[in-house]
Design a protein that fits this description.
By secondary structure, this protein is α+β, with helices and mostly antiparallel strands. It has 2 domains: 2-41 and 199-230; 47-185, Bacterial polysaccharide co-polymerase-like (2-Layer Sandwich). The protein has helices at residues 2-19, 21-42, 61-67, 72-89, 92-105, 108-111, 128-132, 155-177, 199-224, 231-237, and strands spanning 47-56, 118-119, 124-125, 135-139, 145-152, 181-185. The strands form 2 sheets. It has a 4-stranded antiparallel sheet with strand order 4-5-1-6. Strands 2-3 form a two-stranded antiparallel sheet. Strand 4 and strand 5 (145-152) form a beta hairpin. Helix 2 packs antiparallel against helix 9 (199-224) and helix 4 (72-89) crosses helix 8. It is elongated. 21% of the residues are buried. Residues 1-8 and 59-64 have low confidence and may be disordered.
Length: 263
Amino acid sequence: METQEQEINLSDLFYLLLSKLHYIILLGIIGTIFGFSVAKFILPEKYTSSVSIYVSNTGDINSQQNQGTIDQTTINSSRMIAATYIVILNDDIVYEQVSDYLLTQFELSDLEKVFTVEYDDDTLTIPPEQIRSLVSIESINETEVISITATTVNPELSAKICTYIAQVAPDLLTRVTKAGSVETVGTAKIPDTPSSPNVKMITIVGLLAGVVLAMAIIIISDILDNRVKVSDDFKKKFEDIPVLAEIPDLFESEKGGMKYEYR
């Protein structure tokens, strides 16, 4: 009995939503337009650049490769060194150097669009935490390859940050750890197209949000509506009370009424 009642309710729900399909379509269109507008005109475009560095536990990588002496122990050791390097590269000392470098490469007005440039002992500086928040340094698939990625609203700035970190990494890391070696793989390129926002994805999310909102409003409104619209509603609400009589609708022949025509 409960299963049958559930099926009837789902059937009623389907026809309810179908009868309000125009409202669902309308809110879906509104959600689509809203999502597209937000992604295209409100959210700032961001550009991502990246560069990779290869970590080895020996200074002579090419020699080991040529002699075929790189074994699993060497690889595991390199991975452990890579994890240590990532911690060091996220230290303030690295981003203080990046700050000094950026201040010599860009106009102050361009940097102020991204960072809060401050004076420290009468010297201009960019807070390290602000640069760090735009940079991601991580091991690629837990290998000995470290990826340095920067995402900002300025494509050239993103590439410059990656390039400079990759430049200072070899000397800094080997000097601090006294172990391993670092080799830059490729170069950080200036991106031509923004990496975010994803206009297509946000537009689809806006469409789905509009459709779901419309369906929720329709269902909640129907649940809160206690009016008896047809005789079947009355019979469902008061199953134990017999219906003695019905007043026919003059314009509904199916309800026992008759249609009148005036001439």
